[in-house]
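Quick question: what would this complex look like in 3D?
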Amino acid sequence: MRMREKVLLRVASKAFIPLILLFALYVQFHGDFGPGGGFQAGVIFAAGFVLFGLIFGLEALQQVVPWSVVERAVALGLLVYGGVGVSCILRGGRFLDYGALDHHSPMHGQHLGILIIELGVGLTVAATLLAIFYAMAGRGRA
Amino acid sequence: MEALGIWNYWGVVLLMMVGLYTVIARDHLVKKLIGLGIFQVAVILFYVSMGKVTGGTPPIIPEGADGSEVYSNPLPHVLMLTAIVVGVATLAVGLALVVRIREAYGTVEEDELQRMNRSGS
Amino acid sequence: MSEHLSALIVVLPLLAAPVCLLLKQPRMVRAWTSIVAWACLVMAWTLLERVHAEGVITYSMGGWDPPLGIEYRLDALNAYLLVIVTGIASVVFPSGAILTDTSLPEGKSHLYFAALLLCLAGLLGISSTGDLFNVFVFVEITSLSSYTLISLGKNRQALTAAFSYLVMGTIGGTFLLVGIGFLYQVTGTLNMQDLALRLPELLGSRTILAGFAFLMVGGSIKLAVFPLHQWLPNAYTHAPAAVSAFIAATATKVSYYLLARIIFTIFGAAFVFDALHLHWLLLPLAIAAMFAGSLAAVFQTDLKRLLAYSSIAQIGYMTLGLCMASETGLTGGIVHLFNHALMKGGLFLAVACVVMRTGSSSVSAISGLGRKMPLTMAAIVVGGLSLIGVPGTAGFISKWYLVVGALEKGWYAVSVLILLSSLIAVVYVWRLVETIFFGDPEHEVCEVPWTSWLPTWILIGATLVFGFWTDVTVGGASAAARSLLGVAP
């Protein structure tokens, strides 16, 4: 009975996890037009990986996404966000003045700026939630 | 009858009081965190219900709009996205502390923790 | 680049924190943290000079002008506060005692320094911003990093102390959020200057009163004003000593600034003190804090706990300056921000040196160490004298202005109470002096290396220097007080 249940979970999750990750990307890029954006997408993205870790085990998850990658991704996302702000300063505008990113068309610059910072936010949030999962799940039974 | 018209604010007040009561009256640390979460959600509901304009549509300007639409206020929603993230982060730090308290003390009931702190140190 | 300093001073520590996560080498991370703190001090000093020369500096984030956009607005008060916070950070972060008294596992110090940098960024953000919701965001950044830092103390009580601070601090932050919501609902704006313009004709509204009440209670929880101070003793006692030095010297000052902004800039002293009579509530609470804190400190057996209760008393003095709402009183309160930051920062760093050598922070640990650790013990004695307010130390300057302010307002009883509570401070400081010089040594130790006693003496020496040379400190504080009261630009 146990073995059969596990097979069901494994098959179902193998079907669902790619869809979850795809949905996360959809939510990430559709934040301009509907509910969505970096934080929500990051959470859904991390949820896909957490589901993988719950079904297939923490060691398998750590082979897919090692701890060093997670730690670097947390830092990288925040640096991408800040980097966009600083590059706005370097291109002559204020901090986070996305209009300065594209001198020909400020509206296009706004669009580009929001897109990149939301990517940074999504990266950091997904990595942070995975890091929390690693830290909590990696502890033995207390 | 105006008291019925502001039913969403009554809901906010009820949730806030439930949350605060849970934080104060319950000894189990995880229950305190849940109460804190309920309290924060009440404030989120408060802002979101503040943002609704009567007869307003979602604040996205479609193609060919002529400016005569009434839109709901998007600013409280944006503020509350941040507040939700703050709530999640607080819950994460709180739960991490609870896990470590459980490992260090063996219990997560506040009265036992206070007894152990007072006597053992 | 120099016109972007108001934004860069917050952005630099915020972006330096993930860089700490990427550079994992302990020495590199320590050097990087110190360099960032020094760079922020240079920026803060430049901004203070510019504010004194040109007046208010405003910076529109993202190119959106206020009141639509978020502006970072520096006037005499917050430029002064920026120098205080970055000054303390630049002395505490490079100190040799920064990693003592912690339960940090090997190889994780980069996370500790990242948390310190995030705390610094949050504090600088609260001080610089001119938008109320931005204040809430930075308050939460500061609080979350403080919970993490406090939980790293050596004994397991650090965990429960951090948890109770988390619960109380989150309630305080959420109350701030509710207050901001009420104000936004009535006025439609979050910008502090715009609120100051729109509020006067709306002051009778019950929503505004409720918003004011929530903001006051939320800010008071963060400031640890008397009945809401329960989180402070445990948090400062069980945190690592250098973390207590940093947080005790900065977080309460920034919370005080927040209350002063809300009372004087947004609502105006006329509404708060003449119409609402807030001083009828705050004044008794401030005096209760002065006495309860000092009396509790007399009976403590742990150095950090003694300093924590003494902090509660000093916060009472600062709140007293706030209640007076006169130029002298506010100058006294604001200059006490500076002086108390120096005193408590120096004293907690000295305790960190004691823990480094003896492994304990109880009062009996410093017994008889007068000869063995002369520099550290002298620092504790001088810091204690400044806490009492002996003439020649910085503590005297702030108490002088507070007493003169009380006399100017005709509150003769209050000035007597200030002097009485200073006498109680004599009791606990004398206990320390007696233990240091006339006790029996428990431990066989030698003095700490210069990387640890030098930062301690920079702060304690500054209390002596600023006890005599008051141009900079009192000048800055009175300019800040005048700008708060709207007397002069």
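Answer marked as accepted. The mean pLDDT of chain C is 91.
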